[in-house]
Amino acid sequence: MLAPARVVSHHILLQVATTDAHSDELLRSREVDRLSPQDRNLVTTLVLGTLRWQLALDARIQPLLARPGMKLSPPVAAALRLGAFQLLYLDRIPPHAAIGESVELVKQSQDRHASGMVNAVLRRIATQPRPDSSQSTAAADAHPAWMVERWHRFYGASQTSAICRANQEPASVSVRLVDEQAEASLLDEGIGLAPGEFLSHARRVLRGDIARTKAFRNGLVRVQDEASQLVAEIAAAAVPGAQRILDTCAAPGGKTAILAERHPQAEITAYDISAKRLQAMRRLFVPGRVHFEVADASAMKLPSGYDLILCDVPCSGTGTIGRNPEIRFRVSVEEYARQRERQVAILMSSLADLAPGGCLVYSTCSLEPEENEAVVEACLAKNAGFELLPVESLMDQLSKQGVLIDWLASTVSGGVLRTIPGVHACDGFFAAVFIRTQ
């Protein structure tokens, strides 16, 4: 009988390979939730590990095929990668289990004729030396070469190496403490916590499953990367006493929630193009606290007069590869250009809705200059009466208020915010603050 964890892992890897589904969402599905805690942990390890090292695994597998370079069906490729990952990167998995169950997965698919080939390839891999995954070259080799070369040009050798290494490690889990009793409640339930890197309301989770705690179910704590929290704190600080706030691409709602916490008096409108995601977001808020509307932010026509606008736009997500390893296989230079076109449209539309003296925060979870500096520069060139408000002035303000426990000078360059995976203990985010001067 096949182990449930390997069956579910194979199914998720197939979905990632054949659809546009994201691994982090699939790992929160009912299929995973029905498993025992031990099996849930194993599924997470198998899925994310296989995706993180997919290029390196393929480099091991391809020379061992009967015809090197032959195209494998998705079920066979997923089973081979899953087995190879266990053999090469997991010390506690017996080789016979990794090989035998991968072969059985293929036997239960429509490609059962390939089971002998899978068995032979994995047995040969089992005799090969294990890779040293701690080396920066090994981490870089698990990324597309063109992607690493681009980062090298923009970030330099040292930071690129740090990004690649961080992407190959389990992503850290950070939470926001929404209630004063949240931390004590989590500790009572056996959750291990450590202070955040930047924010007084953030904690890093060292051990335990936050999603299964009473504190989480009761809304006392929210899972949210610390860089995402930081962007929202900067936005909230940009306009003290803001009365009208717009979040143009609001789902899943973590940043909107921080804006509501910091501006309890404000009228807040949350837009998103996805009705399904917006509906899920409603659960974060007391009914009536936020006005929700399904809308395309790149084409919205609104009356101007918002004091504060947050444009956390859709992007390539390359700052979150550590959390969503499949992104490295889905993006391209052409994708960056396509995203940039939409991002400029959203930002241009939103700037028109900003009141004089108001501020707009533009942010992405991308590491790519096309989606960050290039968008900011294009919109400034097309819009007279706007200028950038240096982010460091808002960081200083947040520090004096005790919101920031520390802020690293390395997060700010040229007046904009940039966090870098591996350099900072969080996802990669970019943020720039516009102010309307006339």
Q: What keyword list fits this structure?
A:
four-stranded antiparallel beta sheet; Alpha-Beta Plaits; single chain; 13 strands; 19 helices; N-utilizing Substance Protein B Homolog, Chain A; nine-stranded mixed beta sheet; alpha/beta; 438 residues
Structure description:
The chain is an alpha/beta fold and 438 residues long. The protein has 19 helices and 13 strands. α15 links the parallel β6 and β7. α6 packs parallel to α8.
Chain-wise SSE layout:
Layout: H1 4-18, H2 23-26, H3 30-33, H4 37-52, H5 54-61, H6 74-89, H7 95-107, H8 115-126, H9 136-141, H10 145-167, E1 173-177, H11 182-188, E2 192-195, E3 202-207, H12 214-217, E4 221-223, H13 226-238, E5 244-247, H14 254-262, E6 267-272, H15 275-281, E7 290-294, E8 306-312, H16 327-330, H17 333-351, E9 354-364, H18 373-382, E10 386-389, H19 391-400, E11 412-413, E12 416-418, E13 430-436
Parallel strand pairs: 5-6, 5-8, 6-7, 8-9
Antiparallel strand pairs: 1-3, 1-4, 2-3, 9-13, 10-13, 11-12, 12-13
Helix pairs in contact: 1-4, 1-6, 4-6, 5-6, 6-7, 6-8, 7-8, 13-14, 13-19, 17-18
Brief overview:
This protein is of the alpha/beta class.
